[in-house]
Amino acid sequence: MATAVIIARFQTPYLHEGHIELINHVKTIHSKVVIVLGVAPITGSRKNPFDYYAREKMIKSAYPEVVVLPLSDHSSDVSWSSQLDALLRTTFPTESFILYGSRDSFIPYYHGHLTTQELPEYGDYNATELRKLYADQVSDSRDFRAGILYAYHHQYPKVYPTVDIAVFRNDRSEILLAKKEATAQWRLPGGFTDPTDNSYEEAANRELKEECGGLEIGSLTYETSQKINDWRYRNEVDQIITTLYSCDYMAGTPTPQDDIQHLRWFQVDELMQMIEKQDITEEHSAMLQLLAHKYTKSLTLN
């Protein structure tokens, strides 16, 4: 008798009735059942919140006799299929296999040499909707809080990309600076990039419009990139790296928007003095110092 192999992801907080019906159905046909879990290359994402170990424990707690194996995702369906065949062949060299999947499963993408069998859907279960349902539920339990620690501990350290924009006018002798609410120091307009942005340049244009209104500017020029000593992340593993662009002002009235309270033009020659007097936010001092040295007409400070 062939060994049944269920190929699935099981990215849900529990085995729902559809999962249970599927596994039970296969178990009525086969005495040996293997579940192969797809493992995404990204940990802790919204689509793949549960790692292999959490899903293995979930399955084994309900079906301790079932063998659970991991299989990494691959950009090539052909390579993934070859790896699946090799995993089963090397783990169980004397076995024959039938691969089981539901209607929207791996079957159309499989290019291996094993027999596949499509199973009917059991109920109208949607893993995405189930994850959304539980995503904002808070439990007052030690296990819940321990789960949060586990999830964060197993994420890759992240770099948050931001963009900052130096808008110049009058032959780059003046620069537009912004001041946020309840702060006394000036800064460059800018902010975090967004997953909907197609490039850093697009993010820079969007942030400039959101914070300064509908200014007409020339093309963006890359100036530099650097890690930002942002006070929110000083004690964190995750950090911010910004990309600085410059551009020439063409037309329009700078209008403070979003979390910007004031916008004002400053002489580039003033920047070094403003930095010494701590009128510039610490996070942007190095970038504005670079711009001052590059574009100032005459440095007034030694």
Explained architecture:
This protein is of the alpha/beta class and 302 residues long. The strands form two sheets. Strands 6, 7, 8, 9, 10, 11 and 12 form a seven-stranded mixed β-sheet that branches. It has eight helices and twelve strands. It is 31% helix and 26% strand. The protein has helices at residues 17-29, 52-62, 77-91, 127-135, 142-153, 200-212, 271-276, 282-295, and strands spanning 3-8, 33-39, 67-72, 97-101, 115-118, 159-169, 174-180, 190-192, 216-217, 221-228, 239-251, 260-267.
Topology diagram in text:
Elements: E1 3-8, H1 17-29, E2 33-39, H2 52-62, E3 67-72, H3 77-91, E4 97-101, E5 115-118, H4 127-135, H5 142-153, E6 159-169, E7 174-180, E8 190-192, H6 200-212, E9 216-217, E10 221-228, E11 239-251, E12 260-267, H7 271-276, H8 282-295
Parallel strand pairs: 1-2, 1-4, 2-3, 4-5, 6-11
Antiparallel strand pairs: 6-7, 6-8, 7-12, 9-11, 10-11
